[in-house]
Amino acid sequence: MIKPITIYGNPVLRKECVNIDETYPSIREVIETMWQTLRNADGCGLAAPQINLPIKLFVVNSRDSYAYMSARERERFFAKDDCGIEETFINAEITACSDEVWTTGEGCLSIPDLYEEVTRPWSITIKYQDKEFNEQVKVYYGYTARIIQHEFEHTEGKLYIDHLSPFRKQLLRNKLTRILKGKINASYPTQKSY
């Protein structure tokens, strides 16, 4: 089932999400719905608040992005021997970040029509449960780490625009106001903020 994606201004996007366990109602269907919604929107990551669920769950697909990139782009965006992932993250916690940072453009399915430069750590260590609720601790790099950080922040009630300078946010005020009013151009179903 494809769900509408919650749009900037919806209060669920600013909630700190709660941990879940395998008894969460219809968790298998929720995870499958998230993957279907992500694929329909042609995105690389989706967090549960983006389908109106304030739970610590997100999905990441950097494999498709890798497949579409040129060899030169792969060198810039991916670590050596990394071809991207398709992974479900439950109750994630980022436990370490590299000192090395990098800046590149970032967008968000909940903030259509906006794409901004964001600086993030190049690598992260993350502890989480996979779709079978098995404990995992892994290190991710580059583009994959960026998507994970972006989606993880959704479960903390944060958005990528929170990383922008006050001056840059001021410049974007009119665009954000248009999004709040539902004046967006998205190729996927959306749920307005009211």
UniProtKB/TrEMBL annotation:
The active site is at E151. Keywords: Hydrolase, Iron, Metal-binding, Protein biosynthesis. Its cofactor is Fe(2+). One of its GO terms (biological process) is translation. GO terms for molecular function: metal ion binding; peptide deformylase activity. It catalyses: N-terminal N-formyl-L-methionyl-[peptide] + H2O = N-terminal L-methionyl-[peptide] + formate. It is an enzyme of class 3 (hydrolase). Pfam families: Pep_deformylase (PF01327). Its EC number is 3.5.1.88. Fe cation binds at C108, H150, H154. The keyword Iron applies. Binds 1 Fe(2+) ion. Removes the formyl group from the N-terminal Met of newly synthesized proteins. Requires at least a dipeptide for an efficient rate of reaction. N-terminal L-methionine is a prerequisite for activity but the enzyme has broad specificity at other positions. NCBIfam families: pept_deformyl (TIGR00079), PRK00150.1-3 (NF001159). Belongs to the polypeptide deformylase family. This is Peptide deformylase. It comes from Bacteroides cellulosilyticus CL02T12C19.
